[in-house]
Amino acid sequence: MSSVTRRLFLSGTAAGLGALSAFSLTGAAPAFAQQSAARRGGVLRISVDQAASVIHPLRTRVNPEYLVAELLYSGLTRLAAGMKVEPDLAESWAPDQTLTEWTFVLRPGLTFHDGSPCTAADVVATFTAILDPKTASPGRTNVGPIKEVTAKDERTVLFRLTSPYADLPVALAYTNARIVPAKVIETDLDSLSRSAVGTGPFKLVSFEPDRKIVVERNPAYYDPARPYLDRVEVLVYPDRTAEASALISGDIDLMLGTAPGEYQRLEKSSGVKALRVPSGQFLNVNMGCDQKPFSDPRVRKALALSIDREAMVGFVAGGYGTPGNDTPISPAYRFYREQPLRKADLAQAKKLLAEAGYPNGVDLTMIASDKPGTRTELAVAIREMAKPAGFRIQVQTMPHATYLDQVWKKGNFYVGFYNMQATADAVFSLLYTSDAAWNETRWNNKDFDALVAEARAKTDETERAALYAKAQQLMHDEVPSVIPVFFDLLAARRDYVEGYDLHPRGSVFRLDFVSLGVAAPPSRTDKRG
Description:
Layout: H1 6-11, E1 27-28, E2 43-48, H2 63-72, E3 77-79, E4 85-87, E5 90-95, E6 101-106, H3 120-131, E7 146-153, E8 156-161, H4 168-171, H5 182-188, E9 202-208, E10 212-217, E11 231-236, H6 240-249, E12 254-255, H7 260-267, E13 272-287, H8 297-304, H9 309-316, E14 321-323, H10 346-355, E15 362-369, H11 374-386, E16 391-398, H12 400-406, E17 413-418, H13 424-431, H14 446-456, H15 461-478, E18 481-494, E19 497-498, E20 515-516, H16 522-525
Parallel strand pairs: 2-11, 2-12, 15-16
Antiparallel strand pairs: 1-5, 3-4, 5-6, 6-8, 7-8, 9-10, 10-11, 12-18, 13-17, 13-18, 14-18, 19-20
Subcellular location: Periplasm
Main location: periplasm
Domain Solute-binding protein family: 84-433
């Protein structure tokens, strides 16, 4: 393991270790001088395709909810372009030599939206709540192996870990790791389901989750130059065609995401800028590895061998994506391991199914949420591709809210949908380790767990790459879930919207950097300051 010297610890610079060039072990706040050119003021109208039903920042689950939480709250760190970590509420951080203790220093003068100060005590209370199973936060197993969080003084927080962890600053940028007031946690944490008390760039004005959410600039935000906008309105458009039409007509300014068919339409529209970025976003077919028939890995592999992945990219992703190889690590990740793409082999699939005790095939019901629509498209494609191998699959589509309540993390055979995570460790720990927050497959493979745990304690890039390669190979061999396709992220904006770029993470939006150009219509700029 590379050592972290006392000089490096004390310096607080962003240089970090050469072994971790993509994510520095120490951090320092950047200057804000480069932001002065952006125009201030105006109203941005952004569309989403489903309700932001959960406003509680520690419990958000889907992209529109992540968007609203990011507008209203801040974390200690945040993700910049290229998956690099940068300061948010913390102005600097550094580990000890063992990577088991990390010290974070907050910016001076931080305040919550209600005017109360944001201090190290609030950070401690927040992470204590996240790590409490009663809070039911997805962040519980995704913010790193945290043993204890303590306040050294009003601005200094110490994280003690159960094991060495090189990625902690990245993990603390997780979508649910938003800092909330200690007094709210102590008195009524559930009140954050109805109101918002954050330190984010915007303050909540109104919350109608199925229709419209409105926020306005926070004048006490830690960067006095940002946000540039006066106001952001988040509008719910369940119909993709109507949503695209609203952007083309100018009723909205920015679409959070769009489907391939609408993307092609938007590319040709005057005044619209179509956006695209390769990502690790994927659909997966989750199989309950603790229940028949999927408790037999031969059944899982037989299903994987029945799928034409190249065809799936065209059918489900509309050509805007790359084939998947049954691991969640796409070429967009730092520790992606390239290996031959699994090809469809129906004869071998039938043979494996027969060996598992299903010589006459097997009857299954695959459940797909109606959001996004690509879930059902994937399910239908797999139904047809797997039929010759002996899989008789009935596809059942249900409303997304019903799916979340009745199927997600409970079902035996269903289609999941996930954004790219910041690191390989993050996606493995979110979905596939035995203690994963969303352990949908119940694969619970101890060898896999050990590889992930060992990799997170290394700073040497070569050693980490070798461990993650073994983890990916093990997943590819045992197929806890079928991952046949990765999606490029697609979105669109009006050409007067400036400073917005699609982030490959999928749940990072950075609207505090967005401004409206001189060509913006008066209806958007009449509040310009």
